[in-house]
Structure formats: structure tokens, C-alpha cells
Design goal:
TIM Barrel; 5-stranded parallel β-sheet; globular; 244 residues; single chain; alpha/beta; 19% strand
């Protein structure tokens, strides 16, 4: 089992002076980040889809074994709400192709008030090429049903396991031969850090849930005051320690 741990984004000004030395200019933050983590979740694409050239520039700035997950555009998930997905998925893939082999999973985070519609999800997932890793993070409880699980499994799409304050807020379904986790807010001090007990619990949960050879991606979204980078570094250490 291989666990890749990183943060949701890397361009946070309040990380300067903590994670990013003050003498490192912002234009070199990605290089500094990639020297310490093997993956990042690019969530800027959710707000505005970059051009293929921008993705290509990111590809050139990180090591050969670096992986960049990308959060899909809100136009697909929040504006269209998965309806008529062919064009927005094609446009997204055309842009993200600039990452080449460094493109990791695609994350579809659904709106919190988007009630379950397995048929729409099935159609959307069908627009992605076979073999592409797509993770889905529903946030309305109506999605926690057999029909959702069946659609995800049919496409080998991972249900994103999400945590808030040390507690899972999604079912812990394994719907694919790989996994995807997001940590939104810890309950430790200083806020929004995760405590050692919560991180250890998640490390053990992953170690027992996934078979040898599986790839699991884990991203910390508690970016305030640099909490994400500290928690990600500790979690990477724990998942190495707890690897079967």
C-alpha cells in the first residue's frame, strides 16, 4: 500500500514565515512545497479553470515523481450540477492534460444542498476516460444509499472519505481499488490542527482497509495558520510507520 499525503492547495499567504521562508519568493513556493511533499490537491481549478499552458508550467516545476490531484471546476459540479456533463468534462480534461503523467485523481466535490441523483452521477463519471481516477465527495446525506455505492463501483470511482473534527462525515465505503481522503478541520489546539490521536486513528484505518499495492491519496484542507502542512507532514510519517 502506498499513501501519498499533501495539502489542498499551496498558495496561502499565511504560510509565509512558517512553512515558506520569508526569503523564498511566492513564484517559487510550488518548488519549495514539492521538495517536501509528493502530492498536492490543486483546488484553484475549482474557481477558475487554468489554461493548458498553466498546467504545463506546473508540470515542469515539480519533480518527476510528483502527483497533482485536481478539483474539478465548479461550473460542472455547482453550476451545471452534473447535468449535460460532456462539454465541461471535455474542457476540463483538455486543460488538465497539460500536467501529462503528473496528473493524479480528479475530485468532484458536490454542493452541500445537492440531493442524490445517481443517474446524473453515472452519466458524469461516464464522460471520463476509462482508467482515470475520479473521486467523488457528496455532502448531502441522501447520497448515502446503495445506488450511489453501485454507481461509484461501476466506474472504479472512489468515494472521498471526509473528516471533520476527527470524525468521518461520510460512509467508509471502498468503491474502488484506490482511495481518497480529505481532512477539513481538526479538533486540537491551536485550531484547526489535528491531534495525534485522530491522526493515528486514521493511519490505522487506512492500513487495515487497503490491501498491499493499493494507492491512497490524503489531503489536508485545514489551511488556516499553516495547520495543513504540519498535519500532513505528521500524517505522512504515521502512514509510513503503520504500513503493513
Amino acid at each position: 500500500m502506498s499513501v501519498l499525503v499533501g495539502t489542498s492547495g499551496w498558495q496561502y499567504r499565511d504560510w509565509r514565515g512558517d512553512f515558506y521562508p520569508r526569503e523564498v519568493p511566492q513564484r517559487l513556493w510550488l518548488e519549495h512545497y514539492a521538495a517536501q511533499f509528493r502530492t498536492v490537491e490543486n483546488n484553484s481549478a475549482f474557481y477558475r479553470l487554468p489554461k493548458p499552458e498553466t498546467f504545463g508550467q506546473w508540470r515542469e516545476r515539480v519533480p518527476v515523481d510528483f502527483t497533482m490531484a485536481v478539483k474539478a471546476s465548479r461550473y460542472l459540479t455547482h453550476v451545471r450540477r452534473l447535468r449535460d456533463p460532456a462539454e465541461p468534462v471535455r474542457r476540463f480534461l483538455d486543460a488538465a492534460s497539460g500536467l501529462g503523467g503528473k496528473l493524479g485523481p480528479v475530485l468532484l466535490q458536490l454542493p452541500p444542498n445537492f440531493r442524490a441523483d445517481p443517474a446524473l452521477l453515472d452519466d458524469c463519471l461516464g464522460q471520463f476516460p476509462a482508467g482515470m481516477r475520479v473521486a467523488v465527495e457528496p455532502r448531502d446525506p441522501s447520497w448515502w444509499a446503495d445506488a450511489t455505492q453501485e454507481v461509484l463501483a461501476a466506474h472504479n470511482a472512489a468515494l472521498c472519505w471526509a473528516d471533520r473534527r476527527g470524525t468521518p462525515v461520510t460512509p467508509l465505503w471502498r468503491t474502488a481499488d484506490w482511495g481518497y481522503l480529505r481532512f477539513h478541520e481538526g479538533a486540537a489546539s491551536p485550531w484547526p490542527r489535528y491531534g495525534a490521536k485522530a491522526l493515528r486513528s486514521w493511519a490505522r484505518r487506512i492500513a487495515t482497509a487497503w490491501p498491499p499495492g493499493a494507492r491512497v491519496y490524503a489531503y489536508f484542507n485545514n489551511d488556516q495558520e499553516g495547520a495543513a502542512v504540519h498535519d500532513a507532514a505528521e500524517f505522512a510519517r504515521l502512514t509510513e510507520e503503520d504500513r503493513p
